[in-house]
Amino acid sequence: MNLKEFQQKLKTNKFLSNYLGIILLLLLVLVFWAVFKIITPGNFGSPDKLLSYLQSSLIYAVGGCGLYFICVMGLWDFSVGANIVLSSVLACYFSQQLGFGGLILAPILCGTLLGLLNGIVYIKLNIPSMIVTVGLSLIYESLSVFATQGQEQILSPAYRAFGSYPANLILALCAFFLAGLLIKYTKVGTYTYAIGSNEFVAKNMGVNVNKYKVVAFVLCGFFAGVMSILTISYGTSMTSASSMASMSRNFTPLMGTFFGLAFRRYGKPITAIVIGEFIISLIFNGFVAFGAPTTIQNVVTGAALLLIVTSTTKPVKGAVVK
Hints:
Layout: H1 3-12, H2 14-39, H3 47-71, H4 80-98, H5 100-125, H6 129-148, E1 153-154, H7 167-185, H8 187-197, H9 199-204, H10 209-235, E2 237-238, H11 251-262, H12 269-290, H13 294-312
């Protein structure tokens, strides 16, 4: 069977066409697991360790779902890290006042409001989203310092349920389900894709482009709030950030978003984000088990991501930074 015959068979086989992306990602999981298991059989890849890798990847995947609404439009949000820091700090404070209600509502409201502010400022200033969100991240970091007076905030042991199974899995699955629902079955998903494909055409078709860009930032902030619940519950403490120290928190969820963008042609972007984050976790923990320096871990992880994304996407000519 030649390549053309295989492609034709793929088009006629609806099941294989729909799930090819997931199959490819699962094969990548198997490959990376096998490689590190062979290299460090005693320190990597046991069932208990795999559950631990999944636990951390779920946190980043939730943030990746929020960033997907932004990035699919060609926009960027580099304030997510600062949003998580501030939302986590508020989660600690309000959990002491209102229990689990404060733990859940405070970071979600904070994250959503910051997302709304990002969208409004971006639309009003009409400058690249990268510049807007980097500038706003400095403000959000300052707010976290002001709120904590520079003191580390520790979540009470009584409210750490979302830091372990099954509560963290349930919350993450709810977030994934909501993201998938919005993308596939609502105008938000339809118009988000339309704007990302061709903003000018979408505007001529009557889509309120500015409105849905703001909605995308709001959704990104909402999912950052949910990620904050998982982050503070898993890590149990949060320290305020300054001088863009929170910026490093942007990149791991963003890497998962890239998987979603790369595999969206198969119609399962949220699934791709979740599996992609698990692959990233496998790579990172594999090098930890191997005893590699952090610098080498970052280099290889970044190179692997670039290879995966490059091999599954085609460059868009004339693309501009928004």
